């Protein structure tokens, strides 16, 4: 069942894998990363966090667009870029030149995974379609992320996370009733698409282990956005009622929303009759739990606004901290509504090791948001800091067999860029 083939990066050699550390799970695999912005880089960073060698191809001069997002530091570091590009090597290749495309072919012939986030027609025009890359490397795992998918009338359109939130109806159920449209505050479709693509790539790697065959794995922001709405879509298809904005509330459960305290807000999630009973008991309003208007979840949903007002009369008697403490002691799921700055000092977050300080020669007090999973109780580690533009161009090309003379010729023709010649 195991393949003993250098083409597979020795990942599948028959051996005892029980002692391998998390960051070594994909050790030996090489990824050619032609993605930019958020979705694609999330996917390839996940692969890098798991130990794969990720070679990030960027355009000379500017590089990945996210290098210039937000408040860029004097060292040219962008928080957006650093968030999704650790454990990668940066090489600058001009894909507008045929020599640049041919260089990508040379790299693609020696890697295990090829990932891009170009529009389908752009990949086709540049000669970077799956069919072409498969000719060069039949066993390659080819991953692509697009905005609206690779088929259909909208396949050629560009797209960003908020556009997909709008298109898939996510904005229609986000925010408070009667107010202006609101986007989900995090890049939910971008991050989700990166996760889905990586899941597909890992499944394709497993298939290759069994059969030796490569695969094409594709995802789009549209698919991710539709998938996030599956609960609301299923409810609509069942009832015929179009879901509406409910603020912090949940359309399927009540009470399951934010309530005012006397100095802030607390999110309360009484997800079943027992928890609702606990809530009423803690707030000393047991009679509410027995009221025929609120005995079942269906009745509570029908009378959700009246129930909210009755409960909020009680919750406003407490500070947010006191209310959370009281509810937790009574077995009621709840949470303060924190601002993001509080996460940096939150005990639970830090005990879990989710915010990790990392030594960085260019950025003071540099921290990363770590991979949100553990394997054998171990998290990933930073093998490589987010790279400077073109930082590894020469090293990578030498590793792939190019000579100094060939590299100098590519530099002379502006096909590639290196660190001291790309403006960084």
Overview of this protein structure:
It is a single chain. With 424 residues, the protein is α/β, with parallel strands linked by helices. It has 2 domains: 6-228 and 385-421, Crotonobetainyl-coa:carnitine coa-transferase, domain 1 (Rossmann fold, 3-Layer(aba) Sandwich), CATH 3.40.50.10540; 256-337, formyl-coa transferase, domain 3. Helix content is 36%, strand content 12%. The chain contains 17 helices and 12 strands. It has a 7-stranded mixed sheet, with helices on both faces. Strands 7-8-9 form a 3-stranded antiparallel sheet, covered by helices on one side. The chain has a two-stranded antiparallel sheet with strand order 10-11. The model is unreliable at 1-18 (pLDDT under 50).
Sequence-ordered SSE layout with sheet pairings:
Layout: E1 30-34, H1 39-49, E2 53-58, H2 79-83, E3 89-93, H3 98-108, E4 113-116, H4 120-125, H5 130-136, E5 141-146, H6 161-167, H7 188-211, E6 215-220, H8 221-228, H9 230-239, E7 256-260, E8 265-269, H10 273-282, H11 286-290, H12 297-302, H13 304-315, H14 320-329, E9 334-336, H15 347-351, E10 355-357, E11 367-369, H16 393-399, H17 404-412, E12 416-417
Parallel strand pairs: 1-2, 1-4, 2-3, 4-5, 5-6
Antiparallel strand pairs: 3-12, 7-8, 8-9, 10-11
